[in-house]
UniProtKB/TrEMBL annotation:
This is Serine hydroxymethyltransferase. The record marks H220 as: Plays an important role in substrate specificity. The gene is glyA. Keywords: Amino-acid biosynthesis, Cytoplasm, Methyltransferase, One-carbon metabolism, Pyridoxal phosphate, Transferase. One of its GO terms (molecular function) is glycine hydroxymethyltransferase activity. Its cofactor is pyridoxal 5'-phosphate. HAMAP family: SHMT (MF_00051).
Amino acid sequence: MKDKLLFESVERELNRQRSNIELIASENFVSEEVLELAGSVLTNKYAEGYPAKRYYGGCQFVDEVEELARKRICEIYGAEHANVQPHSGAQANTAVYLALLQHGDKVLGMSLADGGHLTHGHPLNFSGINYEFYSYGVSKETETIDYEEYKKKVEEIKPKLVVAGASAYSRIIDFEFMAKVAHDNGALFMVDMAHIAGLVAAGVHPSPFPYADIVTTTTHKTLRGPRGGVIMCKKEFAADIDRAVFPGMQGGPLMHIIAAKAQCFYEVQQPEFKEYAKQIIKNAKAMEKVFKEEGFRLVAGGTDNHLLLVDVKASCGISGKKAQRLLDEINITANKNAIPFDTEKPFKASGIRIGTPAMTTKGFKEEDFEEVARIIAYRLKNEETDEIKEECLKRVAKLTEKVTMYSNIKYI
Ligand code: PLP
């Protein structure tokens, strides 16, 4: 018997996903096959352990599923070993730290204020609590990673581990250089490629393989799978990583999600995925062009990947928080984001982060994204009036009405 109250909430969310322009850089729309598997009977199965080494009976079929997932992701990235069990990106990073570090060890990661992630050493996160984290960041002039400063820090601090990767960084990351510096100074080099995993898989962003000792990712961002995490590593770290995930940090793996991951990896291996990844970047470039024409200041001067950080404070004299609300009101979903050297508190922020993956999945091309950027500029640069709001809503509806994805899904 369905809980009507609950299903109606899900249906409202489905309608929001249908009618909004989704620009959250870390979100995407999964295929109906991924949805089906994530909601499959595999949710019923306990499978602590790994294929052929389980602590429960009846695992022969989920073993096949997990093997497919492991094999496919290793093929995609040329990885030596993969653990597909982490429930999320944060769990994947936790497991890596658990496998490689002792309490109090020194680690160097990208500063959250400059685009890094909470799990890269934020003082309120388990990473910052348990390990002695230091941070590198971007230069004030270019707002791109200050590689010289990074090198100096590695040489001075001599960390046991260096973490590369970011949540809000719009330029290519030089993994080769970062790995060389880390290794020359006796550190292990880990890349958290959560945001760019799909771009790397398609060859449109340089790969952290083979420079990195360990690579973590989420599966739900540009990779376009279910919410989840994966760890890939060189063979020599495989046993430690597997032990850190289970029994170190998790109990039973989410076999329905692992099945959905395997389906996602299958999709990544199809030729269409390359086209999608290329289009993500073309679309980000199309937005960059319009924002520049409209006189907006873009952090780091623009983008090489799937996201843009727009300095709305410098461009329109409003906070990121207000910009997020103004866009929400016209059915455009983005998030406020701190920019490097931000003078506002993170909850207010001076920027918004805009990503193209989700609407690229829905079929938007350059001309659509140009129109989205024009709508955003029109809304943010003008007075907050009902007329402008109504006009923007109409322009958004015109863009979304041609989208067919999820039109046949029903939840009630
Ligand atoms: N790593 C990076 C770089 C991220 O951007 C994120 C999420 O935004 C994560 C890890 C954490 O992923 P999850 O939300 O699945 O824990």
